[in-house]
Amino acid sequence: MKKRIGIQGFLIFASTCAAILFYKFLFPSSCEKWAYDFIGIIGMVLVIKGYLLRISARGAKSEINTDGKTLVVSGPYQLTRNPMYLGTLLIGLGVSFALFKWWVGCVFAAAYLLIYIPQIKLEEKILSERFGGAFKDYCLAVPRFFPRGKCCSSMAPASLPIRKGWIMKEASSMAAVFFAILLVTLWQEFALFGRIRYRMLALKLLIAAAYAGIVYVLHYEKNIAAGNCKGCCK
How many whole angstroms separate alpha carbon 52 and alpha carbon 9? Predict the structure, then answer.
């Protein structure tokens, strides 16, 4: 845990420094308005999807693995063995698309996977020693990182339950991320177009809020009992 937090802290620090030092190279300088707006909306949606995964994974694990000795295989863990890592990747991609040039997201994804895949393998070794055959069977049924196309839909309420208490655990992080996106977007609007397009900014926020609201309604207070997947991941 401490190692993972240290890696995440280093990535945030390094990314912030790079954004400050090379902002002219990283931030969009000139592009069509529709492309800038479209990519920005995609970025916002990816951030929300990433937090959806993190909220569901963190909450389900806290309820099922209360003693730290239980293998969690339901909820988002029936889609991917590492929903927290995947959620963080989506958040990072979303921020990259919302604020930077499109290729920055590709660089971020490559760097993220390069750093975290070895960490995931190390954690899987520990889990294999702890749970033995049960973990081996779980690995055969569920992919390590990216959900399979034939698996449960990532929007299925039974696969990604959400509860109010779980949301509060990620609330400060979400607020900080969206506040940062808003501030940088305001600066970019003025830099790119010579003014702040408040109507377009409001439309982006409305789309993001509507998407978040739909997700909340679909997934709120759903069952996280084991067996929801009903074999579709096999």
Answer: 21
Q: SS in 3 state form for the chain?
A: CHHHHHHHHHHHHHHHHHHHHCHHHHCCCCCCHHHHHHHHHHHHHHHHHHHHHHHHHHHHHHHHCCCCCCCCCCHHHHCCCCHHHHHHHHHHHHHHHHHCCHHHHHHHHHHHHHHHHHHHHHHHHHHHHHHCHHHHHHHHHCCCCCCCCCCCCCCCCCCCCECHHHHHHHHHHHHHHHHHHHHHHHHHHHHHHCCCCHHHHHHHHHHHHHHHHHHHHHHECCCCCCCCCCCCCC
Q: Would you kindly state where each structural domain of the chain is located, as residue ranges?
A: 32-219
Instruction: Provide the percentage of residues in the chain whose pLDDT is more than 90.
Output: 20
According to the per-residue pLDDT averaged within each range, which of 88-97, 179-188, 190-199, 212-221 is highest? 88-97
Per the rule left: phi > 0, alpha: psi between -120 and 50, beta: everything else, 43 is alpha
pLDDT single digits (tens) 7-40: 655 665 566 566 655 666 777 765 667 778 888 8
pTM: 0.82
Cα gap 189→195, rounded to integer Å = 6
